# Entry
Amino acid sequence: MIKKVTSAKYREYTAIEDLEDSYDVIIVGSGGAGLSAAIEAKDAGATPIVFEMMPRTGGNTKKSSAGMNASETKFQEASGIEDSNNAFFEETLAGGNETNNEELLNYLVDHSADSIDWLDSIGITLDNLTTTGGMKVERTHRPSEGSAVGGYLINGLLDNFKEREIPLFVNSEVTGILEEDGKVTGVEVLINQTDKRTIHSKAVVVTTGGFGANFDMIVEHKPDLEGYVTTNHAGSNGSGISMISTLGGDVVDMSDIQIHPTVEQATGYLITEAVRGEGAIMVSEEGVRFTNEMDKRDIVSADIIALPEQKAYLIFDDGVKERVLAIEHYIRVGLVVSGESIEDLAEVMSLDADSLKGTIETWNKTVSEGEDTAFGRTTGMNEDLSTGSYHAIEIAPGTHHTMGGVRINTLTEVLNTDGNKIDGLYAAGELTGGIHGSNRIGGNAVADIIIFGRQAGKQVVDYLKN
# Structure
């Protein structure tokens, strides 16, 4: 029996009375990694089930905005974009300050194009290309119309759930992972905060996300982030990491916590990197540029924090607004201020009109000449800022992604503190550590969850056969 509850496009979850006592594999978490793992496991012949602690599916994936990075894809080829797996690897390694787990990174890069193809084969087409900070070519894949990737991706994966009749239970918090004789045997789950059940399985895949919404955990591992707003949804509380640690699972890089430079502070809304990738600039309260807007997130964030006001303004025109559909949402929720002219915008923002106008004129000349002599920006310069009216969003850094987490290998097997696998236990997504190094490149989180989520689904079925 299926009942309807409130969600995005897909509004049907499995009724709790249909919960059975055992399944082949239990997947904990319903973001992109968990949903991908379940689809792959189902298609390989297993009987998966998904538990989601929140009342709605999607996790942080649903909040993703920029896109999914991938190299050597058919969509790049169709657009005449020359790219290589080696370039993707090297730019991600540089972005992570060369602290990435190179085995995991190689797996991600080498399986990125295949995962774009897999998504396309199940009705999720990411053929609109843009650039994110730290990348030198257009390898960030978005929905065709340029909308935010998160909602589109989750809805598409849930459509596939419906077709495959995969059980998915919300308001179902897994509180512990069961183990017997060195092998995982199931989970303890709390239904609707009151009904505790023991559900058995031959394997468990944990995809609960990071700990970006757990302020105590954030400050424990990186005290200087106390007081920062977060872009994370409430379910990103580190529960999966804690449960796996209780079983003896190892963790890595826990102090590597990323702040994102463009966060609206009152709401915690992350303003997608695609806004800059499609041509926006950033200015200080003096109305002048102060950084390479397309540099790595840690560098751009540091440059904003170094300003006396510790905040900045994204400036863009109607052309950028038309190319990045997420801006329409930012307008609807009141994050954008606008003016018919640069002078009008400056007045609304209480900035010096001459300074802002001079900055934009200089930027347009920079785009025309193709060389940013001031800050060395080389991407997001295909169009200048001279189309229609002008807009701005006030931003500052906020806690965004936790790069550290559970230690896994390329098979997504969870490793204990001795470096040995925990039989029957797999993990994928933001709760794992090592892939991104000390700084994640925009667009790589979606690549991470899809590529390693799929791998977890495949590997768990191989484990069940042995």
Observations:
- Residues 1-10 have pLDDT under 50 and may be disordered.
- The two ends are 33 Å apart (CA to CA).
